[in-house]
Specification:
Layout (H helix, E strand, L loop, with lengths): L8 H14 L3 H36 L5 H8 L31 E3 L5 E3 L6 E3 L5 E2 L1
Antiparallel strand pairs: 1-2, 2-3, 3-4
Helix pairs in contact: 1-2
């Protein structure tokens, strides 16, 4: 697919300078930049959709863990004392729990969120200590 993009002279010059420094073509630099941007934005959108699904599951079930509970649990990962997901969910018990798609084991998402699924329920926590599921 051929696509035309109009660039101002300053940006063209910057791209050409970078291409020369990297021993690549300006076309390659632009393709890489676009690819990186699209991948980053797709990951950001996927994270947003996971967060919305988490919020929906919370509204339906009321189940949650506090940020402190999640941090304590995550701090055990990779140690000899690694613990299973805490069983003391706050909220209604035996309610339907939303699922986190494409998570098996641990996963790091856009924005630094760490996700892990278990046999009880999936959980996510962001780098700032907020959590869901």
């Amino acid at each position: 697919m051929a696509t035309s993009v109009k660039l101002d002279d300053d940006l063209k010059s910057r791209i050409q300078h970078l291409a020369n420094a990297r021993h690549r073509s300006a076309h390659w630099i632009m393709c890489e930049a676009i690819r990186d941007y699209v991948e980053r934005e797709e990951a950001r959108e996927a994270f947003k959709q996971e967060a919305l699904a988490s919020w929906t599951a919370y509204k339906e079930t009321g189940q949650h863990l506090t940020g402190q509970e999640v941090r304590h649990w995550l701090n055990t990962w990779g140690t000899d004392e690694e613990k299973e997901i805490p069983s003391n969910y706050h909220g209604r018990r035996n309610a339907r729990v939303g699922t986190l798609t494409a998570v098996s084991g641990r996963k790091k998402s856009a924005g630094g969120a760490v996700c892990r699924s278990s046999d009880r329920a999936p959980i996510c926590t962001s780098g700032n200590g907020t959590s869901g599921w």
